[in-house]
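#dry-run=false #mode=assembly
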Amino acid sequence: MITTTLTVNDRVHAVTVEATATVLDVLRDHLGLTGAKRGCNYGVCGTCSVLIDGRLARACLSLAANCAGRAVTTIEAIGQGEALDPLQRRLVETGAVQCGFCSPAMVLAIKALLAVNPHPTAAEIGAAISGNICRCSGYGAIVEAVMRATGGAAP
Amino acid sequence: MTDMTVVGQSAPRLEGHEKITGRTVYVDDMQRSGMLHAAVLRSPYAHARLVSVDVTAARALPGVHGVLTGADFPHRYGAFVQDEVALAQGKVRYVGEPVAVVAADTLALARQALGLIAIDYQELPAVMTPVEALAPDAPLVHDDFAAYGRRVAVPLPANVCAATTIAEGDVEAAFAGCDVVIEGTYETQAQVHCYLEPCGALAEADAAGKVTVWSSCQSVFRVQATVAEVLGMPMSRVRAIATRVGGAFGGKSDVTVQPLAALLAVRTRRPVKLVLSRDDDFMMMRTRHPATIWMKTGAMADGRLVARAARVTLDGGAYAEDSSAVLGFALLIARGPYRIDHIRMEGQVAYTNRLRAAGFRGYGNPQVTFAGECQVDEIAARLGRDPIDLRLQNAVRAGDRWVGGQAIEACGFAECLEKLRDALPPRMPGRGIGVACVTHISGILSTSAIVRVLEDGTVTLNTGAVDLGEGADTVLAQICAETLKIPLDRINYTVPDTDGSPYNWSTGGSRVTYMVGRAVAGAAGQARDRLFQHAAEMLECATGDLELRVGGRVGIVGVPGAEVPFRDISGRAHWVAGGPIIGTTSVMFEGGGFDPKRSAVTGNGIGKLGTFVFGAQAAEVEVDDVTGQIAVRRIWAAHDVGRAINPTAVEGQIAGGIVQGLGYALYEDLRFDGSNPANPTLMDYKVPGALDVPEITPIIVEHPEPSGPFGAKGIGEPPLVPVAPAIANAVADARGVRMRALPMTPERVLAALDGGSIKPSSRA
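#status=ok
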């Protein structure tokens, strides 16, 4: 077991975990933050996506021990209290949310894109979410929602 | 119905906020005090005798609280053939079959304990394809098949778990008179549901022995019934509750791991959570039925389709589950939405030593429609006819009868084809456009709803229908809100729970909007009638003089000021007179079966399943001559939904179904390397990603279904069905070659372009 310090959503947590524990293990099993999902646990489905120092990362492939002193942002920090972030609101309104299992990670993948590219094209949005599988929506509504949220024309 | 305020609106879904903020509780997000974690041991063999199973060392591991094997589950179960057991008994029948399950303090400990279970297997020869299974002297997958309980107890050949024939007219004589006959054999593959949330359950037993099971499922009532059957308990001792479901697509229709979690909870007296890893889910759960379909379709020179014959062999895998119904439905629907008087559809389902095949969005329809729509296209080409014209000439219309004799009430099929034609652009150089159509059913069995007006005039709607992500909760709440003329936010939609919800057969068969919607409209209508009775007494008028006013008020027609709000009426009902206002409605899609004067049926023929739904799609493709890759550029999809209760949700079903159909058409395929799944991971089993999808244009067609709520009927399954044949027909349009096997991989396309000089490797 190791003890490490993780900064999650601006709060510092000291956790004692197995050396092999991932950020996803810590979030879900130690901190009670279940917005990041375990869809495959091997880095393909994208449902565990979080931001680590602002960059999109697979929580299931990120060792907690390597994240000491780094800032982890999860879906729980998006939006202000009960109020949705405008991107979240657009996603709901556009019908981009169906079963919802991919949705929190999808929000973070788009946030990571918008941080570096505030007005992406449809192709750029597609590329940014290409590592996040959605089995329900067919993706079109997600891209449309982002275009609307960023003032771009719907594709 | 022009004054509707809620139905027809694209209301954002009720649970959108919780889902987009990550606060939704799926089963793996649940914790209970003292909860144990469970893991399942998989068979490494496709077919082997269990000589001995020794769990002593696993039980002795500190932190392990329960170990179960097949001996703990003596009760066989199964909807059509009672061939299933919760854990293997006597022998294993596929690689991945659950053999033992462990509950421990942590998941890591449970998995460690699995490694301590000593099993002596005696390997047996396996049958990995229907061809092997149906060969003379093939090893038997189920040695005791004759002793199993069966719903349809017709004699069957070895390794066959279901066989059905449906015939009408005189197909041989009709073929003899045809001017054009197309004949071919089609192969389709094992598509994996790949819902993003793996299967899971959490169970807890109380001191009286009643067990509560939370799970990701399509029907809490089927979970309740099957857990009770497997555990040998009365249903009254099993409570099933649905968590939010992270996709299902038919794969969570029957029980998954609920019986294992339930018995562990009973035995350990602790809450037990069992959530499959993605690996376990791929290896243990289900796929779409692979199919081999010989089909022949005949037409006259003037374009009339007159005869169709098919022989369908489905690979059912190791256990029958719903295979009998999948086959029966495939044969019922194989005629397609055309006036073809002479048909003969024969089919069988073979047992093999592969993981079981099950219902999957389309339920046998995608397989037969691939064959059928490719043949209609070939006939059009042979006759020099436009593929949409030929389909319109033969299209079923309202008042026509389906195979078996059921009347088609409302039918927007011709309009789907016409709207599709209007939407199509001119053919671009280098690209091909292909058309394919679908008929499906929307209905099946029984369901019910309860609408209760609360003391403050808000309303609780309780149906027991599980929303798998498609938006059923929102659509049902819209139907309730519209019936009572109240805003959507005054509806409380409740969690499906067998202790409190009325019965709902399942979320499947594209049925919830249509069937549960009817029950909701009926129950809300009853509540409205009760509200009117109170209001008539309060306003001193006749009920016939009353009207609902938007916002939850009942008033006297023509007298603007004379009205009472629901709050006052419900308060009166609760505290003064009459008692609480509760509406309840039960409905059944009345199944009358086949008209024997019309159809000859043997085996499990299933008629009158539901009302008919229709669609027509077109795909535009480019084919790369060098790589063999098919690039699908655009898809247009016109679907008759009766009435769109929530247009955005309808479009979501169309787009999502098309993309799942795209994966089925082009690459999704669980392959086998000998007896082992060769690609049972999301790395190796490709599902469509955001960069793989074409531009999709949904076209909603509305021919109100007289029996539907506000005219609505289902849309869940149909959009997936015609995608593969539309793409195949587009490839034929672009390059002149006919694709007869799915998925249409580059390897197969190159082989076709090369006129057969390249031999693609076979499926097995």
